[in-house]
Amino acid sequence: MGSGADIDGQRARIAELEAALWRDGLDEDLLEPYQHAFRDLEDMLAEQGPDRRHHVVIVIPVADSPQQLQTCLDSLLAQCRAFGYGGIEHGRYRKISVLLADDSADPEAAAQDRRIAARIVQAGIAVEYFGLDEQLALLARLQPADLGGIVGRHAPAAFGHKGQAMMRNIAYLRLAEMQAHRPDQRLLFYTIDADQAFQVKVATPRGGCSVNAINYFHHLDRLFDQTPVQVLTGKVVGDPPVSPAVMAGNFLADVLGFLSAMADCDPDAPYLQPGTDTRGSGEAAYHDMAEMFGFTHQQDVYRYHCRLPGSPDNAACFAEFARRLNGFFHGEHPTRITWYRYHGVAGSCQPARTVYTGNYAFTAAALRWFIPFAPLRLRMSGPTMGRLLQAELGDAFASANLPMLHRRTLARTGESEFRPGVAAQQGAVDLSDEFERQFHGDVMLFAMQRMIRLGYPVASLSREQMVAILDTTHGEMREKYRSRQQLVLERLDRLRSLLHERAQWWNRLPALHAALDEFDNFADNIERNFGATSPALARIDAPDGWRHWRARLLAAIMALHADRAAWQQALTILRDGCAA
Length: 580
Known about the structure:
The protein is of the alpha/beta class and about 575 residues long. The chain has a domain at about 1-50. Helices cover about 50% and strands about 10% of the residues. The protein has 19 helices and 17 strands. The chain has an 8-stranded mixed sheet, sandwiched between helices. It has a 3-stranded mixed sheet with strand order 7-15-11. It has a two-stranded antiparallel sheet with strand order 2-3. Strand 16 (about 425) and strand 17 (about 430) form a beta hairpin. Helix 7 (about 165-180) packs parallel to helix 19 (about 560-580). The protein is globular. It starts with a helix and ends with a helix.
C-alpha cells in the first residue's frame, strides 16, 4: 500500500521532472517519463484507500462540427491515457466524464456526434449526450421559471444554433440537476470548446509542435482544494480567441513584412524559420486594439513559422503562406500564434477579470453564475461575464496557466467546420454578422466596466445613467474602429503596390502564380470587409442601427436582476425535484 511518505516522495519526483522538462525549453525526451510518473502516483493513491479528489465533468458544446469534436475527444482520451487522473475501474476512467451539449441544426451532424460519443464511451470515458430533445425536456421541467433572458426564446423546430452562451447556460442547468442527484460527490465542472485539444503549442528550433504536457485534471483538483477559488479560467494557445474583425491591421503588417523579406531572397534558398521566438504570447499581440485591454500595443512585425517539414526553400514557404491566407477570415492568425510559455500552475494562480468561455472550471457553488446577456449573441460575452465575477467574487475568481490548444480551421480546407457570422462563397468572405456582433460586444463590455465602477449590479443605476454610458461608449468605440479601418486601408494599399511592383522574383516562377492569386483574393476580401463599401460597416452605421442595438443592450442590462431571480428559481426547482 502506498504510504503518505511514498506519495509525497512521488510528488517531489514529479516536481523535479517538471522543472527539468522545461528548463531549457521543452525536453521531449522527458515527456513520457513525466507522464509515467503521474501514472505511478495514481497507482499509489489507488492503494491508499478511498479517493476524495474531485470528479471532473467536462462540458463540450458543439454545433455541426463533428470533425473538430472527434479531435477534441481524442485529445481527452490521450490526456487520460497519458496521466491517468483518477485511475481506471472496470475499464472506465473513474473521475472523468463528459456532458456533450449538442447545438447542431443538421440531423446528420448530430448523428455523427452521437456515434463519436459512443466510440469514446467504448474507450473508457463516460459521455452523456445532451441533444436538442434532452435540452427541451429539461427546460419544460423548469416552468414556471422565466429563463428567456438567459437561454432565449426559441421555437422547438428551430432550437439548434442557439450560440455558445445560451447553449452553455442550458448545459449549466443540467449540471445543477446532476449535482442535485449526486449531492455527496465532489464535482468540478470544466467547460471547453469543441475546436480545442488537451495540448499546448510549443516553439522549437524545428518549428511548432503540439504536445500533451499538462496534467489538467490533477492541477484543477489541487487548485480548487488548496485555494478559495470558485471559478478558475485558463486561456488558449494556437489560434487567437478573437474575431478577424479586430485582427486585420496587425496581420497586414506581418503580410507586408513577409513579402518585403521575400522580395530580397533567393527563391531556392532555405527559408529562415523564426525558431523559438514566442514574442506576443500572453500579450494579445494578435488584437489591433490590445491597449483597450491594458496591454502595451506592439508595433513589431512578426515573422511566419512555416509548417512545411524539413528545410523548405523560400518559394515553397511563399506558396504555403499564400494557402493559409484565407484561414485568417475563419479565425486563424498565421503569424501571431500564441505559444505556450511554461510557468508552474500553482504559482501562476492570480485574480482574474476575463472568463475564457472555452476554458474555465467552476464548483457547484458557482452554478449560480450564468453567462449574462446570452440571447444578444454578442462576442466578448466571456470578458463581460468576467468583469461581473471580478466585482462580485473577488479573489474567488482566478486565472492560472492552464491553456488549451485552439484550432479554428480544418487542415484539409483551411476553413472552419461551422462558424456562425462568417459567410464564404467561391473565395469571397463576408464577416458582416460576426463584425457587428464584435463591435456591439465591445460596446457592451466597456459600458459594463463603467457601470461596475458606479456600483452596478449591486447598486441600482437609473435608466438615464445607463443610456448615457451606452451612448458615450458607443461613440468612443466607433471612433476606435474608424481609426483602425483607416490603418487597415493604408496597409492594404501598400500590399497591392508591393504585390504588383516589387515582387519580381516570384513572378518569374510559374509555380507561384496560383500563390499570387491567393494574395490577390486575400486583398479583395480585406477590401470587401474593411473598405468604404463594407457591408459590415454599413450595418454598424445604419441610420437606425444604434437606436435598435441601444434598446436591446439597455433592456438586457436592466433585466439582469430579474434574470438572476429566475435562474435561482430554476435551480430551486431542480433541487426540489431531485429531493422528491
